[in-house]
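Reviewer comment 2.1 asked that we show a complete input and output for one of the modelled complexes. We chose the pyridoxal-5'-phosphate case, as it is the one discussed in the main text.
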Amino acid sequence: MKGQPVSIDPQLPLPEKLPLSDTGMGIEQVIKQFKENWTPHLVGASSSHYVGFVTGGVTPAALAGDWFTTVWDQNTQAVSGQGDVSARLEQVTIELVKELLGLPDAFMGGFVTGATMSNFTCLGTARQWWGAQKGINIAMDGITAHIPVLTATAHSSSIKCLSMLGIGSRNLIQVKITQGDREVMDMEDLAIKIKALDGAPFILISSAGTVNTVDFDDFNAINALKKTHNFWWHIDGAFGGFAACSPKYKHLVDGWQAADSITVDGHKWLNVPYDSGIFFIRKRHHLLSYETYRNSNAPYLGEVENGALLETMNFLNFLPENSRRFRALPAWFSLMSYGKKGYQQIVENSVERTRELSAWIEGQSKLMLVAPTRLNNICFTLRKQDDPKVEQFLYQLNKDGKVFMSPTLYRGKKAIRASFVNWQTSKEDIDFIKSALEKTLEQF
Ligand SMILES: Cc1ncc(COP(=O)(O)O)c(C=O)c1O
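Response of the prediction step:
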């Protein structure tokens, strides 16, 4: 993606729609049309100069795997290998990701479109678990009760999941965030909120990597609560879960092995192409997943009862989708090609490059960090300017297509985010980004 603009002037007029011809124009003409009219409007999101949102690049091995995914065009469902063996490869890939992240054998998992759907898959099973504590089968009978969900820093996608799951985003019980500059769950306030529930079961959503400061909740402290309280513990590790790949940073996820469910994202630090998210749920909960996602009245989809066994499972009875892309293949290609050291290097390089740019920003007279840089994200702003100027600065920076950063709000103030998860980011890329910032700063 070198050379392709990484952002587009939003004022550029969009390409026109051509009429659908009777006979079609042929693939060569279509490629020409695409190149001339559409690619100038596409952003090079896999470029190492694109540091907006949290967007990984695509490793060469993942690209090859993705081509094979399309060429083979499997509908990845039954592990038994009747019809195809893609579901078995998905299971194997889940095992590899567990190995990479130091997760115990106690987890099963699968691939979905992204972290939003992973959170949905996990929280759907959590909802069924909560019903089971009350003697209700929510999948069959629906929700008639208020399900307490506690969180301090849930990502918007988890809140969206509560809406989609009928739990209700308004029913969230907000736990305080610690004082100071961390985006972390306040354990004292959590204890107060739990006490108020008077022993009732609940769901707890915690974070492994918040979007501004990449902070991690205290998983050992949460784990300790498991001994005395009855709750489903979900961790959203979409952003920071891959810190587990590095001996330098794996302490950040210490204790997460005891969670009931975990989300990580493939199209972030795993550097496989969109769309790719991964969920993990403890194997001992697999019947709850099965109750939630089973296809109960479609004999043509195969024998359902055997599908409840993990050895003969069919993914379509354990997660929301029925038809499924062979999404594990790009991840398998990449994991097998680069191994543990390869991913350790990607993670450590991302953090080093982040720190390099962060230190430079700190030394600039016109820029300042608004939050400490802890791992692989920088939150910064213009030192002396107001919110509208910050928006203008970001607009100007992105406008000429050299780099792309995204906006954020930190403690009520507008700021800019630069997030590093791309496998290709080098020292030269950081110099390039610095000079793009310098050039834009001349106008402010
Ligand atoms: C912590 C966290 N959770 C969930 C998501 C949603 O991920 P996706 O866009 O893959 O659905 C994101 C996306 O940035 C995230 O940072």
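The chain has two domains: 27-59+343-441, 75-326. We note this here for comparison with the apo prediction described in Section 3.2.
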